[in-house]
Design goal:
This protein is α/β, with parallel strands linked by helices. The chain contains three helices and five strands; from the N terminus they run αβαββββα. Strand 1, helix 2 and strand 2 form a beta-alpha-beta unit. The longest helix is centred in the last third of the chain and has 12 residues. It is globular. The protein starts with a helix and ends with a helix.
């Protein structure tokens, strides 16, 4: 009998793209480093080109993905939808994530 809870719980080896949708310099790199420090091994960053958003969105291909990422992106929405073939999970950072970043950067 296979234990599927481990597979559902962790996306540490999934290819994750973090896009900065908050127009705050360094935000995606900050969260990339946070995920890498937590054991995520395949994280890339980029800029979200469709404007700024308020709430961070975690786009996944299947419902079992992404729940572990809520620990790092509190208040984010997980949305199941078709995303780029190149990634397993796409995170678009919103302004709410930026407030957490500026608080930590100030310390």
């Amino acid at each position: 009998e296979e234990d599927t809870t481990e597979a559902e719980a962790s996306n540490t080896s999934s290819k994750i793209m973090i896009l900065n949708g908050a127009s705050v310099n360094g935000l995606a790199a900050f969260f990339k480093e946070r995920l890498e420090n937590a054991g995520y091994t395949n994280v890339e960053t980029g800029n979200y080109t469709s404007g700024t958003i308020t709430t961070t969105q975690i786009y996944v291909k299947t419902e079992s993905q992404g729940k572990d990422l809520l620990n790092y992106f509190p208040g984010a929405n997980i949305v199941v939808q078709q995303i780029s073939e190149d990634v397993d999970i796409e995170i678009v950072l919103g302004r709410e994530s930026a407030s957490e970043y500026s608080t930590e950067a100030a310390n």
